[in-house]
Structure of ATP-binding cassette domain-containing protein:
Amino acid sequence: MLQIHEVTKQFKDKKKYVTALKHVSINVQEGEIIGLLGENGAGKTTLLRSISTLIEPSSGTIHVAGYDTVQQSAEVKKRLGVLFGSETGLYDRLTARENLEYFASLYGLGKHETKVRIEKLAKMFGMRDYLDRRVSGFSKGMRQKVAIARTILHDPEIILFDEPTTGLDITSSNVFRQLVHQLKREGKTIIFSSHIVEEVTLLCDRVAMIHQGDLVYEGTLEKLYEEEASTDLNYIFMSKLVRGGNEYA
Ligand SMILES: Nc1ncnc2c1ncn2[C@@H]1O[C@H](COP(=O)(O)OP(=O)(O)O)[C@@H](O)[C@H]1O
Ligand SMILES: [Mg+2]
């Protein structure tokens, strides 16, 4: 479903070059949930922005459902749902339904399709009671649901969430987790980034750890626990980072 092959990304910052990703390769199968784990500045957002066609890799390739993110970005965009950060970007003065209708029109969905999709998502996410209320009175958790519904209105095959729970309270974070489980049951492929180890263990089939642009681990949690002879992911993560400089330089 997603092939990231030897992706390197350099940014030119004033006169200096910053290498945000170094030869990163990850394959994600259909229906999998992958967690990108890394500290601030590790390169998570850069990778997600590259997948979502917002930026182009300096070298290497990314394919989404067989389409190249640089050469065939329109095909890629159709198949992706993307939510960056926990800022929902909803219009307060509109109702939840109106917000969704607005975004559906941006996706080019027809009237009937929009109605059907909104009904389906409202049912799936338990938003029916407040679908026709103005967003201004919504809790963070309610907003989060509407924002995620907006991200997947066009029924994308792959969904990218960049630090979806950063800045959210526990209740809203739990809302996010529940929705991810639901989307998994629907067979969606999901990639999300986090610097919260627990979140990754709760949600993911596989984990990709990134440190200073290097992929320091990619695989199942079971395999990682076995290799490290520990199930303490916090400890494993930290020790991978410390070793990262020697082992993966
Ligand atoms: N547009 C940009 N210009 C210059 N440097 C950037 C840009 N975007 C990201 N970087 C740098 O790339 C590195 C990775 O950043 P980022 O992908 O945002 O990390 P993360 O999302 O894991 O916190 C950081 O050193 C960051 O400063
Ligand atoms: Mg980031």
Summary: Residues 2-89+156-235 form a domain with the Rossmann fold fold (CATH 3.40.50.300).
